[in-house]
Amino acid sequence: TNPSLLILPGDGIGPEVMAEVRKVIDWFGANQGLNFDVSEDLVGGAAYDVHGVPLHDDTMAKALAVDAVLLGAVGGPKYDTLDFSVKPERGLLRLRKEMDLFSNLRPAQCFDALADFSSLKKDVVAGLDIMIVRELTSGVYFGEPRGIFEEGNERVGINTQRYTESEIDRVARSAFELARKRSGKVCSMEKANVMESGILWREVVQKVRDTDYPDIELSHMYADNGAMQLVRWPKQFDVIVTDNLFGDILSDCAAMLTGSLGMLPSASLGAPRANGRPAALYEPVHGSAPDIAGQGKANPIACVLSFAMALRYSFDAGAAADQLEAAVQKVLADGARTADLMGAEGGTPLTTTQMGDAIIAALSA
Ligand code: NAI
Ligand code: MG
């Protein structure tokens, strides 16, 4: 049987960029015999409009059953006044929670043709290809106690940084597995100098490496130094593994080393299942972009590259992923630009569909 893929286009530009990914999926089926059992369903505002909830139970069940989920984006002004419990974002949060997606993969990859687009010097970013693995379901965003409490005659805001050994262990494994598909090099970042959770983090990551991943070259760095090193010379890294809070900040920082929001893919992975594949949700980093929705202006590359990540990390189709990434490199090198990738020099930007067609043409070339 073919591997299964659930597509959730969502709202705003989500369906627009997803239509281009459908072309890519069909191309691999028609030209390389790489076939998927594809189904499509609603999420976010689109689901709310039909079902009154941002994720129907049936959709949730499907997401748990498939090999991978590919999501466009959710949200939009139409839904801003909805009750918190049915807001589009809740659909995405439910997916992440019930699929137990604890490992968030955020690549920072520089496409040569866009190296000038970075705010950093060209030689600092040219050829950059690193991956931040952020722990996504624990740490200071979830730890108890949390809240705003009365204390004497003033209030105190409290969040708790809390990590268990098993939470650290599983995200470390996820990073080491990933590194085996890349350079074999991992840098773990925490603040063991001032935080107990950081001391435990460092110990557990090292132990997992020594016990089960002796082939991995592991280093440790304090997260503040990591931030400096990321901007100074990011090419010293391959895979970086870090906690939820540091990962939130470091992954946004790393992403912007290379340019537009319209270019950034992501993956969120859970534990390996019976068939060896992890629960997996792939999505562009960007949102539903209501300011350009419905105008054919959206850059589909972030969503296309999210599918490339699915090929690599869910479907063991690394060669196809390489091929798709090379096609994106090629169209950019040939000068193809959606509006978000155009500098002050101007020119006529490609539409979403034209960019998708250019990628298909590059695949076929
Ligand atoms: P956004 O990412 O949707 O847009 C930010 C800016 O980047 C906009 O100017 C937009 O036009 C541009 N942009 C984003 N993706 C682009 C693409 N593929 N091609 C060209 N330009 C692109 O973030 P914003 O405006 O803060 O949020 C809009 C809506 O999206 C909100 O309802 C928000 O809650 C939701 N959102 C959803 C996310 C998700 O589904 N994972 C993530 C972030 C926001
Ligand atoms: Mg962030």
From TrEMBL:
The keyword Manganese applies. Belongs to the isocitrate and isopropylmalate dehydrogenases family. LeuB type 1 subfamily. It is an enzyme of class 1 (oxidoreductase). GO terms for cellular component: cytosol. Keywords: Amino-acid biosynthesis, Branched-chain amino acid biosynthesis, Cytoplasm, Leucine biosynthesis, Magnesium, Manganese, Metal-binding, NAD, Oxidoreductase. This is 3-isopropylmalate dehydrogenase. Catalyzes the oxidation of 3-carboxy-2-hydroxy-4-methylpentanoate (3-isopropylmalate) to 3-carboxy-4-methyl-2-oxopentanoate. The product decarboxylates to 4-methyl-2 oxopentanoate. Mg(2+) binds at residues 224, 248, 252. Residues 4-359 form the Isopropylmalate dehydrogenase-like domain. The gene is leuB. Gene3D superfamilies: Isopropylmalate Dehydrogenase. Pathway: Amino-acid biosynthesis; L-leucine biosynthesis; L-leucine from 3-methyl-2-oxobutanoate: step 3/4. GO terms for molecular function: 3-isopropylmalate dehydrogenase activity; magnesium ion binding; NAD binding. It catalyses: (2R,3S)-3-isopropylmalate + NAD(+) = 4-methyl-2-oxopentanoate + CO2 + NADH. It comes from Roseicitreum antarcticum. InterPro entries: IsoCit/isopropylmalate_DH_CS (IPR019818), IsoPropMal-DH-like_dom (IPR024084), Isopropylmalate_DH (IPR004429). The record marks 141, 191 as: Important for catalysis. GO terms for biological process: L-leucine biosynthetic process. SMART domains: Iso_dh (SM01329). It is found in: Cytoplasm.
